[in-house]
Amino acid sequence: MFVLCEEYKEILRQSAEMKNQELELLGSMYNVPDELEFLTLAVVSTSSSDENCEISNRCNSSTVGKAPSESDFTLKLKFNNFDVELTFHLPVMYPISEKLRIFLRCNNINNNFCVDLNKNLRIFVGNLTLGEPQINACVDFVRSKFEKLEKRVDQMYNGEFSLRNDIVRKITRFWIYSHHIYSKIKRRNIKNLTDRLNLNGFCLPGKPAVICVQGLEANCRQFWGEIKLWSWKKIALKREEEICIDDESHVFQRKKLFENFSEIQMDIKEFKLLLESYDSRSIFNVLFGLGE
Predict the structure, then answer these.
(1) Fold of 2-153
(2) What predicted TM-score, i.e. pTM, was given to this entire model?
(3) Locate the RWD domain: which residues (predicted)?
């Protein structure tokens, strides 16, 4: 049997009450299906009274059959360019005498950014005050970081390139050659993947076939890392390009950018003219092994 001393019981009672209120508020804020998922839940309430709170009832008893459990849940945040998943762990005595733990995942962003953001999250939580709600503070912290990143991405694609040193001023482009692309499923999957990773460019199906993706370097690399694992007779990353934007040349450079991702249908002669219109005439020789 797990015996609770009076002081410990009081901490549990206060923690359960505050935790319950915080989770109920969270549930009302994020009520879209699959947006909020509880993995383990020690605090469940259908009303505001302690009589209907399971853990509060446990804490009113001097003896409990087992130690009070912890709470784990996942919260999914959607931005225009990013899908973020936050996993929370609430210890038994959160928030009175213990702090929450949080881990962030985002599939369509540079892993180094996620590592840095998780490190900053731990520092942020470490500076929070015990006895006060912490979940929404963490969500607001993450939201502010990704809203700033969204602005950087929007500026990049809208041509509003800031002159400040901390703004992204380069775009990566991958040129991919395939022996052929005919499958409607594969073509649809390519489009879906570019949508998920916010990549522009084009796919020229047929035999031979060409895929060009353009966007953040990490997203281009993730695209290539995923599609090269699919079933292909032959596929190769022929060239990586980096388009730099600066205060003197951004108007000219912008003309070289693809504005969306689309599937194109044309013969080789028309394709060569298309490349020339994007100042990429040398790519034709690289793609088809004709030399520089």
Answers:
(1) Ubiquitin Conjugating Enzyme (3.10.110)
(2) 0.48
(3) 17-144
